[in-house]
Amino acid sequence: CAKKAKPHKDDKKDLATCRVLLAELETHQDAWPFLKPVDLKAVPGYRKVIKKPMDFSTIREKLNNSQQNNELFLCTFIIDVNLVFDNCERFNEDDSEIGRAGHNMRRFFDKRWTELLQ
Ligand SMILES: CO[C@H](O)CCc1ccc(O)cc1
Q: What is this model's ipTM?
């Protein structure tokens, strides 16, 4: 994501835009599996299968700690959100409640970040 198709001129608003986008993800009706870290003690196999767990609350923490002048925050944000959905696809059947929630959320995110950030 370092090389943007359209050079994005105004990086100043990007941090605020990431916060808006994250709020939309967190309030989406299908967000429930992704709001908090998966309980590695409660879900057999998760720790072994998923090398880099990620969830929306962790992304919010990272965004709150990221410095705007650390221009990597936008790429980190996009990569982390996609990691949530990639982990979900790896661990859940497409034809399952959580699997479908992951696909719905990814579709929603792809649409909104294109509208807001590209
Ligand atoms: C984002 O949710 C994770 O993929 C864990 C999914 C899961 C948790 C407990 C189960 O019994 C089954 C799937």
A: 0.94
